[in-house]
């Protein structure tokens, strides 16, 4: 349903600008006070990135203040920039991932660490988006953002062993390559898929924008398993591991891939035992991961790594908690319901279901969910959007990524509640991550 925006908003623009500026100023004051109280420095955009340098930004009240600034600044820009320019900027934003990919595959961050710049026109677009800095005409330098995909290796070393470019690094460049090389081409054909009367309404994981873009009938992950896609699959694995390591330490504690979340739990709760399930190729990597990090868990049987098709019955065993981290967003509702029903069949009365995923908010006031512990969140300061606008935009980008690659999607709390209700579970509690978090929300269900 669509409404006339003038009737909905009717907001005086100058008053809104002043309110947004006030939010920004108050938030900056909060950050300044927190930095003084903690004796930490707020990270400078001119300094190279390191996880340790983010300590000041990770203080909870600083995270909240920062999220308000991002939301207010983006909303302020949407008011003051002429509408045609805003829409043109949105429509041409695809050049940014193209420029990022060029910078990454030409090893520009590594080159600038030791020598002068190249690719001036590409770098100028990135510098205009605050990635790199143009310090003089056609002279560029790296900054905090570009340092994120600097591997720290020499260009000669990378050229000699390109398959090892991201080994031993924070691997953020691998994540950006995945986005700009694997995901970007699929987004370009998404409009054609949506309006296609044959596949536009299907939830089939083999009828996606990815399938059209890469001309394959295989699901995304099976295509990655092909011998000719070995490089992409290896890069994807490094990217997912690097992305997880950039999250706040022990995020899972506060509220499977190769089992990195279970490993975090194992280090905090050594009395627990784990069964880590995934596709066979991932489990092979998982054995190496656990053998290297916690070999005694493999030897003692406290961790069991097993290949499992999530759409077949679970092995019979007493399970205290089923943990699904970034799994459901890969699938459309019908597949999620089938998966959760199989878990319900393997559960007993005391089993809990823990879903760790993005829980996206509406861009308007939401229906009350006060019967679920932790679901009610205070609204941000007026006139910010209820979902904090640009602060939360990564979750919505991820939503379209899931659509293009897998016909999956990120879900609202009511949608998660609906999946549980249809599969024999009841949503009883929610934990939200920090305002900038991606994939850190937790939904807890119990059997019914």
UniProtKB/TrEMBL annotation:
The keyword Methyltransferase applies. Keywords: Methyltransferase, S-adenosyl-L-methionine, Transferase. Residues 255-368 form the O-methyltransferase C-terminal domain. GO terms for biological process: methylation. InterPro entries: COMT-like, COMT_C, SAM-dependent_MTases_sf, WH-like_DNA-bd_sf, WH_DNA-bd_sf. It comes from the Eukaryota. GO terms for molecular function: O-methyltransferase activity. PANTHER family: O-METHYLTRANSFERASE CICE (PTHR43712:SF2), PUTATIVE (AFU_ORTHOLOGUE AFUA_4G14580)-RELATED (PTHR43712). This is O-methyltransferase. It comes from Mycena rosella (Pink bonnet).
């Amino acid at each position: 349903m669509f409404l006339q925006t003038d009737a909905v908003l009717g907001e005086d623009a100058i008053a809104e600008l002043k309110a947004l500026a006030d939010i920004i100023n108050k938030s900056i004051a909060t950050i300044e006070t927190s930095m003084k109280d903690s004796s930490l420095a707020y990270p400078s955009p001119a300094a190279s990135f390191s996880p340790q340098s983010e300590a000041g930004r990770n203080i909870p009240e600083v995270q909240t203040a920062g999220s308000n600034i991002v939301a207010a600044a983006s909303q302020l820009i949407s008011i003051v920039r002429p509408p045609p320019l805003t829409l043109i900027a949105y429509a041409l934003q695809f050049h940014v991932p193209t420029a990022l990919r060029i910078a990454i595959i030409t090893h520009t961050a590594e080159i600038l660490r030791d020598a002068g710049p190249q690719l001036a026109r590409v770098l100028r677009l990135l510098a205009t988006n605050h990635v790199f800095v143009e310090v003089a005409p056609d002279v560029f330098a790296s900054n905090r953002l570009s340092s994120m995909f600097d591997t720290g290796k020499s260009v000669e070393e990378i050229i000699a062993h390109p398959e090892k470019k991201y080994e031993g690094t924070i691997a953020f460049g691998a994540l950006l390559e995945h986005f700009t090389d694997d995901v970007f081409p699929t987004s370009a054909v998404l409009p054609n898929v949506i309006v296609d009367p044959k596949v536009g309404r299907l939830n089939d994981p083999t009828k996606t924008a990815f399938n059209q873009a890469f001309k394959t009938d295989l699901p995304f992950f099976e295509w990655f398993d092909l011998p000719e896609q070995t490089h992409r699959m290896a890069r994807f694995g490094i990217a997912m591991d690097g992305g997880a390591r950039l999250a706040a330490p022990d995020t899972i504690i506060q509220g499977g891939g190769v089992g990195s979340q279970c490993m975090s739990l194992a280090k905090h709760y050594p009395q627990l035992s784990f069964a880590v399930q995934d596709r066979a190729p991932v489990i092979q990597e998982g054995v190496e991961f656990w053998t290297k990090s916690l070999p005694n868990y493999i030897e003692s049987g406290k961790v069991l790594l097993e290949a499992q098709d999530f759409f077949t019955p679970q092995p019979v065993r007493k399970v205290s908690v089923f943990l699904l981290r970034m799994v459901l967003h890969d699938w459309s509702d019908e597949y999620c319901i089938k998966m959760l029903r199989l878990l319900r069949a393997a559960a007993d009365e005391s089993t809990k279901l823990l879903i760790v995923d993005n829980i996206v908010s509406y861009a308007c006031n939401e229906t009350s969910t006060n019967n679920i512990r932790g679901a009610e969140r205070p609204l941000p300061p007026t006139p910010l959007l209820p979902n904090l606008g640009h602060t939360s935009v990564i979750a919505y980008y991820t939503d379209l990524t899931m659509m293009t690659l897998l016909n999956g999607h990120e879900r609202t709390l009511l949608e998660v509640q609906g999946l549980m209700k249809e599969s024999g579970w009841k949503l009883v509690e929610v934990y939200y991550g920090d305002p900038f978090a991606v994939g850190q929300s937790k939904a807890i269900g119990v059997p019914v």
